[in-house]
Write a structure and sequence with these properties.
By secondary structure, this protein is mainly alpha-helical. The chain has 7 helices and 3 strands.
């Protein structure tokens, strides 16, 4: 019985320690996550961008294009491209150049999903595949809940 108890304790520790070590590889201040941790919570960056979108604060989004925070750069790009596609905001050649640089960047950004997925990926990879689809879904929800009048 004592051996079973010891095995159970070590098994539980392995389950708990693995997610913690995965989380230690990421920077929570520079993280993109649409539904993270047990509660499926958005990261602070997404919450901040959501507040900016509610105010249609294009200037704040433009400033984020030159941020040192790669998560903010990513969010600025997807939001500004959405506003542009809705013809609510016109991007200048300078903005388009910055966006192009960000979309091809190999700089790292942290990502999370759920309780156990925490990783470092390149900015470039966020504009492809599943992350692109998740971002589009998030944007759709954001834009359904706000006025997109300039």
């Amino acid at each position: 019985m004592q051996k079973v108890t010891i095995v159970l304790i070590f098994s539980l520790l392995a389950i708990v320690v693995k997610p913690i070590s995965a989380q230690s590889q990421v920077d929570e201040k520079e993280m993109v996550g649409f539904a993270c941790y047990f509660a499926g919570k958005q990261t602070n960056t997404l919450e901040e961008v959501g507040r900016i979108l509610e105010k249609n604060n294009y200037k704040a989004l433009l400033n984020m294009l030159t941020s040192k925070n790669n998560a903010k750069k990513y969010m600025a790009v997807i939001c500004l491209e959405k506003f542009s596609s809705l013809e609510k905001f016109e991007l200048t050649n300078e903005h388009l150049t910055l966006i192009s640089e960000i979309k091809s960047s190999t700089n790292s950004v942290s990502v999370c999903s759920g309780c156990t997925y925490f990783n470092q990926v390149t900015l470039k990879s966020l504009f492809e595949g599943d992350m692109k689809l998740v971002a589009q879904s998030w944007l759709q929800q954001q834009f359904n809940g706000i006025s997109t009048e300039p």
